[in-house]
Amino acid sequence: MRLREHPSLLGRDLAIFLIMAILAGCGLVYEYLVSHYAGRVLGAMETAIYGIIGTMIVSMGIGSFLARRIRDAHSGFAWLEVLIALLGVSSVLIISATFAIANLLPHVIGQVFDLPPDLLPRGGGIEWARQIAKVSPYVIGAILGILIGMEIPLIARVREALYGEHLEHNTGSIYGIDYIGAGVGAALWVLFMLSMDLTLSAALTASANLAVGVLFFVLFRDKIRWPRLLLAAHLLTFLLVLLIAEQGQEWETAMEDLLYQDHVVFRMNTTFQHLTITRRINDPRKAPVYTFFLNGRTQFASNDERIYHAMLVYPALAASARHDRVLVIGGGDGLALRDILKWEPKQVVLVDLDRELVDFFTHPYSVDGEVVNQALLELNEFSFSDPRVQVHIGDAFTQVDALIEAGALFDTIIVDLPDPSHPDLNKLYSTRFYAKLRNLLAGDGAMTVQSTSPYHAKHAFLSIGKTVAYADFAHVEQYHHNVPSFGEWGWTIAVRNGAPARTRLARLDEPLAVDDGWTTRGVMLAAFEFSRHFFDDVPAIKVNHLGSMVAYQYHQNDWRREQGIFTPFEDTQATPTKETQ
Hints:
This protein is an alpha/beta fold. It is 52% helix and 14% strand.
């Protein structure tokens, strides 16, 4: 039969296309929803997003094959939408509950057996629980992908049953409307849902699933088995959707709080990352300790961040001939900026990707009449409000190009970026990026790069130093110091011309020109000392060229070894010895 010969079928056919378009949008939102939340709890946003989306795409292919095993396309499709809505609306809560249980389990066992905090169980079943939690986003994504993948084959069979014959362009038409619907779903996610609470986004998406499921039921009720049971399932799922829309954020927040040792006082999603602030009161007579997390990873703790930032900032500034113009890459919390301003520069240019993060550390942020970031603004001493500071928002890799084109030159460069813990950051640890920074550095200036932990991520640390050296700096050295919140931490310092930074620091007079109450010439010089054989592996360490992913892979592999998870890095040059992290 042809459509023009049977105009009465036009309404149902258009309804099928509408259903498919809406479901395609829902499917894409579910992909983004699960992957975005996985990035938050796993702490590697880009890796999780790409991994979850890839898993769901493969699973959708598997679902397409499995759809042929469903004999009744009408009933199968109707029940499928209930299942997708049920799993979609609860996906975030299932993942958060899995992580919360894995994190809470050692403490529960400790309380049952009255164990001290330093003897809580870590291995065996505890490690299994943690691994299950880490895999749970991928499992949820795979199941959702299989269910979503069944939709197109089933709806294609429904459409052919409507006409009573094979339709020549049936698959192409359905895929066409599917792509359009997915595009609309992507636009809705970016424009509206990304800034919503994830449980509310899930509830809205599941509601759309249920709505089209009801529409399909109305159109093909006479062909659907167990119609009353199906309507009951729709009703119960809808009640769950309403409950999650109302209480989901509170539940998810309560479970997320279990992931942190201290009390969570604030959390926020920006376009790029998830911010969490915790508070701990060690002594009522002293200020609370605030810890700041990005995507679950510790960025600083207020009781010891001055050690980290002093070691990041002071050696480079002390080794530079002048401090008139300073460039900061990263450092959106304003803490490095605070210490730089003490050296009385004429101008500081700071480049950061996340405008919302910078704004949070610039202006008071009120929630229910309380300024939740007041302690952090006081910690960075309102450094972003200093008129000498210029903030450039954007990807540092391209923002640096704009500075080069403008002929900018800086006396000191401070690179304060997160570890290369996911692929998107790898380019900011590459020879190409460091070569760009060299073009911005004055001939008698110095550059410092945050270089992860030389103890926990030794290969990554050494690779960063070797990569900076490859960018044609005259002298490159590495140093380290203990920061209690992180453990042993390291930095790389480079000069474009003249004497090495360590030699320059040794020539300084005591006391230093700027007094932070902690840093001395002796402290800085001692930081350059390593154990006797620490650098023996350097000849075998790879340089991180743009696109090579060397820094990322070293970092991932090092941390896995630290956690006792041995997954060999396919590297014929780097020879494992006693790597940690």
